[in-house]
Amino acid sequence: MDDPLLIFDCDGVLIDSEAIYLEVEFDFLRSKDIEVERDWYVGQFMALAQDKWRAKLSDLLLEKTGTPLTDDDYTALKSVSRRRVLEEVRPIAGVDTLLKAMAAPRCVASSTQMPFLPLKLEQAGLARFFGDGVYSGDMVENGKPAPDLFAYAAEKMGYAAEACITVEDSANGVRGAKAAGQFVIGFTGGGHWTDKSGAALSDAGADHVVTSHAELADWLAANTGAMRA
């Protein structure tokens, strides 16, 4: 691709926040005496649209305890997660260097609700790289793993699906971007990834997997016109 659009997920790709979300969610599950396998949970829950995530978590609680997720529990989970993300958020190593060196247009497509999405990008010092190109699952009828958000972002940026390269760290995100007809790079550079090979992302359909933003920059330079000469 000589002139691609880069579509970035936020959590786990731009900011190192997924480990925080997982810690909060596993603390909550343990408070309910629920133990689940981490890789299973990551594959099932990560990057889901908020309504899908809430429904799925409620189903898990109902199955394990006989009681679904309450409104109070959901509100408390969101409150703790958001507070900790804003207090602890930091950009993924190398992302600032990557974005500064990119010549290609770029945008964000995240399941994070508005207005929290631009707030945490600003807190991490990355909002300046994206301007108005920040798109939330709130903006479409069906969030990840549906293709709607990726298609919406491409349309708003004025690019056809085949000219888009999406960078995702979750199987649900990979599935959504592939369903939208986009080229997908799986990213395992976030602190939540233990299997840096990204086998789960490849299995979900990722066309290529990178372990860092430096590796992503090298791949883009070798295969596209996205980087400055």
TrEMBL record:
Its cofactor is Mg(2+). One of its GO terms (molecular function) is catalytic activity. InterPro entries: Beta-PGM-like, HAD-like_sf, HAD-SF_hydro_IA, HAD_sf, PGP-like_dom2. The keyword Translocase does not apply. Keywords: Magnesium, Metal-binding. It comes from Oceaniradius stylonematis. The keyword Metal-binding applies. Gene3D superfamilies: HAD superfamily/HAD-like, Putative phosphatase, domain 2. The lineage of its organism: Bacteria, Pseudomonadati, Pseudomonadota, Alphaproteobacteria, Hyphomicrobiales. It comes from the Bacteria. Belongs to the HAD-like hydrolase superfamily. CbbY/CbbZ/Gph/YieH family. This is HAD family phosphatase.
